[in-house]
Amino acid sequence: MSTNFDWNTGPLAHGLQCYRTQQFFEAHEHWEGVWLTLAEPEKSFLQSLVQISAAFHHLRRGNRIGATSLLTRALKRLDLCGEQFGSLNVALLRNHVREWLTALLTEPPRSLPTYPEFRILAAKAP
C-alpha cells in the first residue's frame, strides 16, 4: 500500500506546479528534497518523477541522450508500481513516458508528444 502524497500543499505541490509550467529543473529540485526523506517503495516512485523532470530539463538543453537515459530509468521504476501509486495515475504516466522514448529513439526523432501528464487521482472516502 503506497502513501497518498499531498499534491495540494508543500514541496510536492510546488514541484507539480513547476512541472506543469515546464519549469523542469525547479520541479526536480522541489521533489528531490522530499525524495531524500522517504523510504521504499515511495522513495523509488518519487525518484522516477525526479528523473522525468530532469530528463526534460536535459532535453531542453539539447542533451537527447541524457534525456533518453533518464526516461528509461524512470520507466523501470514506474514499472514496479501498480496502476496507481502516490495518488497518481501511474498507468497513464507510464504510457506517456513510453511515447516519449519511442519518439526520442526514432531516427530522425519523431515529432514529440505533449509532456507526460501527472494526473492526480481523487481521494477515496474513508
Question: Could you explain the architecture of this structure?
Answer:
With 126 residues, the chain is mainly alpha-helical. It has a single domain (11-105), classed as TTHA0068-like (Hyaluronidase domain-like, Orthogonal Bundle), CATH 1.10.3450.10. Helices cover 58% and strands 3% of the residues. It has 5 helices and 2 strands. The chain has helices at residues 10-20, 24-35, 42-60, 64-78, 90-105; strands at residues 84-85, 88-89. A two-stranded antiparallel sheet has the order 1-2. Helix 1 (10-20) packs antiparallel against helix 2 (24-35). The radius of gyration is 14 Å and the shape is globular.
Short descriptors:
126 residues; single chain; two-stranded antiparallel sheet; Hyaluronidase domain-like; 5 helices
Map the helices and strands.
Blueprint: H1 10-20, H2 24-35, H3 42-60, H4 64-78, E1 84-85, E2 88-89, H5 90-105
CATH hierarchy, class: Mainly Alpha
Q: Gyration radius, to the nearest Å?
A: 14 Å
Distance between the termini: 15 Å
* Total discrete domains: 1
Largest sheet: 2 strands, antiparallel
Name of the CATH architecture:
Orthogonal Bundle
CATH topology: Hyaluronidase domain-like
Question: How is this structure best summarized?
Answer:
The chain is mainly alpha-helical and 126 residues long.
